[in-house]
What does this fold into?
Amino acid sequence: MMMEPSPLPEKLYKYTKVDQNFYDLLINAKLWFSNPKDFNDPFDNNIRFKEDLNETELRLLAQGRDFIEKSKFDEETIVTYFKKNPEKLNDIYKPLKELISNVGICCFSESYDNLLLWAHYSNCHRGVCIEFDVAVMQGWYKDIKRVNYQDVMPDINILEVYKEEILSSLPFYKSSHWNYEKEIRIWIKNHGLIPFPMEAITGIVFGLKMTEDQITAICRLMVRLGYKNVNYVQAELHPTDFKLNFIDVNIVDAP
It folds into this structure.
């Protein structure tokens, strides 16, 4: 069963290493939208269709939906065939599964102070966390939603939802094992490098292990590239708790 996600926060955060991909993101103002086939979680964007269809459902299936190819066989032949060979329903689902597996997904978090995300995605605090404005991104991309975390894969009845509904919902489901990420995703119909508006970047959070020279170089680069109204801060260890503090970074605008 598919659920409606809760409202979005005002900001999105993308944890990343400071490498060539990071500089390409800034210089070209493009985000990488991954193919789900490349995700580290094999359950991510997986789909489970209802396969125990009764005769009424089989007739509806035979009459066709927008993602079922037109058949040269009549309705009675199709119903009889699938009643005898229910395992063959997977052959109908293959084109839709292939379509789903070739979308593009860009992943963010609603949190910039997550210790695990800093360790896993920002090179153990040697990287950064980029802040994006949600309102600006929503004006650029159609599908931005929170991820729904649950213990079982979404159960989809192919007779109750259309292709577009599945495509716009399935990318936003993950196992509850990942709920610490507080993930928010953008979904599009193709993958690769996709432009975003420069004004969407409103902040850079520098990892606590980044040097002053590294921070200054990145800040100056962003000024030269034309990024405006960006807030720069750096993480530091809290003196007593297992959490981060953040201090303002003062930059010189000179090249």
User: Anything to note?
Assistant: The chain is about 30% helix and 25% strand. The radius of gyration is 23 Å.
